[in-house]
Amino acid sequence: MGALEDTLGISMINLISLVAGLVTLLVLVAIYQAALVKDPMKGRVKALQDRREALKAGLITTKKRSTPIKKTDGVNTLRTIADKLKLLQKEQTDKASKILVQAGFRSSDALVIYQVARLSMPLLMGILGIIMFYGLGVLPDYADFHGMMAGAMVFIGLKLPDVYVKNVKTKRIDALRKSLPDALDLLVVCAEAGLTLDSALNRVAKELGGASPELADELALTAIELGFLPERRQALINLSERVDLASLRGVVTTLIQSEKYGTPLATSLRVLSAEFRNERLMRAEEKAARLPAILTVPLIVFIMPALFVVLMGPAACKVTQDYLGK
Predict the structure, then answer these.
(1) pLDDT at residue 55, as a whole number
(2) How many Å from the N-terminal Cα to the C-terminal Cα in the chain?
(3) Residue 245: which of 166, 182, 161, 175 has the closest Cα?
(4) Nearest to residue 236, comparing CAs of 246, 244, 225, 247?
(5) Mind listing the pLDDT tens digit for each residue in 117-140?
(6) Would the pTM count as exceeding 0.85?
């Protein structure tokens, strides 16, 4: 106790009070975060309105007279760096733009940040590795492997932006896949009620805003594009390109055919909704069927040894006592 006080220069009572205060603060923050009801659609409505205004400006004005969008100073700096390094050329940004849009990052600033991060993260991680291993002498017992560790950090920095975007894209697609059958059921109801496709998409987006903000965002944006783009078919194609989901591409194909040939929309959507629900049920049954095989390893490692001890323990103790008694 006294040695600790001499080392830290603070009494034990004050140290305990400080730790208790920090723990209390963390508990209060956790309770506040849990009790605070967040609106998942907050900020998305403004983004959709900006998209509406951008579509209006693109249809009314020409590209030469379009007003430039104001950017923040930080993004302007990154954009200047990217322009000097020629990171925003079309052949380099087409694939990256598509991946970012599928992950939910539609702003042009996201592309700039992504390209600069892909270039700068390996350099930063390499510099950090050199400082850690050669400057500060971290892990001196493994000095022969410092170069390999620094190279591994460079590789991590190279892959880190791609891994982050891929994880965000995967989570977004999973959320869209889970909520798609419910959205189709609502679309069927709206179509049978006599609503047009634009009105039906807006209504479904409004109803799904709390349960599935990702799908609501996509449907609302599609409804906006249906109202402003010269070709309604292009708005539906944009939806299939923004979402890398095979089932949603099937829905888009059905909507395009209904728009083109005038086929009943409610009947087609009802069939698709039944198929997607069966697919979701089969996926759940597949996971349930894999459960016994997955539980085999924990059963062997944790349960079987305890079971052998319970069953064989008394007999082993009895044999030991008999032999020792003799």
Answers:
(1) 59
(2) 55
(3) 175
(4) 225
(5) 888 888 888 898 888 888 777 777
(6) no
